[in-house]
Amino acid sequence: MTNREKAEAAWGVPLPDWIEKLATACDGKGLRKTAADLSVSPAIVSLAIRRNRAKLDFIERRVKDILGLSIIPCPVLGLISRKDCRDNQQKPFSSINPIEVQLFRSCRGTCLYSEIAKEERHDLPKSRKMSRRARQAHEARQ
Predict the structure, then answer these.
(1) Which of 14, 103, 104, 121 is the most exposed place for a label (fewest CB within 10 A)?
(2) Are 30 and 54 within one domain?
(3) Region (Disordered) spans which residues (predicted)?
(4) Cα–Cα distance between 13 and 23 in angstroms, integer?
């Protein structure tokens, strides 16, 4: 029995889009490879396909972001995938590259796709260069 057939038996027809993508990926690449691509355990993928778990929001978001590869507009880089967007949001502050500084500020500022909680967003000074005292004060606040 294929993963798609298992999903249809559990979810009914028509399948939700994200379950269809997940089952198709599992049938093509295998359950373990798909789970590795999503950075989750194979058991979670199997539970999602078989609809054996009540809280599936996190796996649904990962499937849509990674397997769906939806393209979104980034204020700094232009059109990027949701995976790249999420990866950029998780990067720490680095003043070496001006684009990295712009990404850090944008992800913690007004970007519509930012998943960073408002409490975690830090407003950096407007100038590109920070004095040593200002940098120490900023790091102390974090």
Answers:
(1) 14
(2) yes
(3) 121-142
(4) 13
Last residue of a domain, one of 34, 67, 100: 67
The span from the CA of 78 to the CA of 119, in Å, is 26
Cβ pair 103, 73 in contact under 8 A: no
- Residue 110's domain comprises 71-141
> Which amino acid, residue 68?
G
Q: 133 and 79 in one domain?
A: yes
pLDDT in tens, 96-106: 899 999 999 88
pTM of the model: 0.50
Domain count, the chain: 2
User: Which of 67, 89, 114 represents a domain boundary (last residue)?
Assistant: 67
Q: Residue 95, SS3?
A: coil
Give the H/E segment covering residue 136.
helix 132-141
